[in-house]
């Protein structure tokens, strides 16, 4: 029990250090990138508030004075560091709302999309990978390999357009974009999930082949267990550790792809909000959205560490040592 607590303490300490370092790094980089974009920042913010047709030099000057955009860059950066130390992300320069309230609402939509995408990957990738691993060289195995190569090679934006044209426009089965329909999440989830399912199928195949060739699996069969019983009792748990680790490493695929996919499908998540914040030069929203996307990656890795620790007792002994 003490070894398990020590392992958990080590994992939580590493992730806490990552969160602090990530917050400072992401926020600082976004700050300088937003300030270095071409064009007048005050004019873009005023356009986001009042509309491009009503923007004037007077309105831009008023925004510049109100937000202190004429202050030295280093002073604005120090102020933001102080706010982030107090867990204060500030207010949106365009809407005037709290960044926390904006981000929490959008984060829920992104998590819904990520969970749906993971469900697609698991439902599609795990059965194909398990079957391919137990029947290596068969028709399903060769077909899975071909599909994995194609799906991993197709960029998410191209796959999104193909799904829009085929499923939404030609068949009319699902809405093209937005979140006003119960099935609106399916197309973006398929766009993100199919690419992840392709790699998951190959990793599951390799893990199942290794598990089926292991001494524990062979010993279970010599005890009189059928192949199915040996697979359920011994093979699946042994093969689960590399599969869970793969999902955690490639969870960044969901975070990165969310920026493109949410924008294409007008899904009201963090990625969509980040794109609009960049266009509006809304620096607090850019920093808040980017920070939350980075934290999502850390949380995914923490969940994967927890899963691998529960599946593989050897990791608990290694962490304790």
Question: Would you mind describing this structure in some detail?
Answer:
By secondary structure, the protein is mainly α. It is 79% helix and 0% strand. It is built from 14 helices and no strands. It has helices at residues 2-36, 41-50, 57-67, 73-85, 99-134, 139-153, 156-170, 186-212, 215-222, 227-249, 251-264, 270-279, 283-311, 313-320. The longest helix has 36 residues, at 99-134. It is elongated and about 85 Å long.
Quickly count the helices.
14
Instruction: Report Rg.
Output: 24 Å
Mean pLDDT: 76
Helix content estimate: over 70%
Q: Which spans of ≥5 residues are poorly predicted at pLDDT below 50?
A: none
Please tell me the CATH architecture of the largest domain by its name: Orthogonal Bundle
Assign the CATH superfamily of the largest domain: MetI-like
Which descriptors would you attach to this protein?
about 80% helix; MetI-like fold; mainly alpha; about 325 residues; 2 domains
Brief write-up:
With 321 residues, the chain is mostly helical.
List the helices and strands and how they pair.
Blueprint: H1 2-36, H2 41-50, H3 57-67, H4 73-85, H5 99-134, H6 139-153, H7 156-170, H8 186-212, H9 215-222, H10 227-249, H11 251-264, H12 270-279, H13 283-311, H14 313-320
Helix pairs in contact: 1-13, 1-14, 2-3, 5-6, 5-8, 5-11, 5-13, 6-8, 7-8, 7-11, 8-10, 8-11, 9-10, 10-13, 11-12, 11-13, 12-13, 13-14
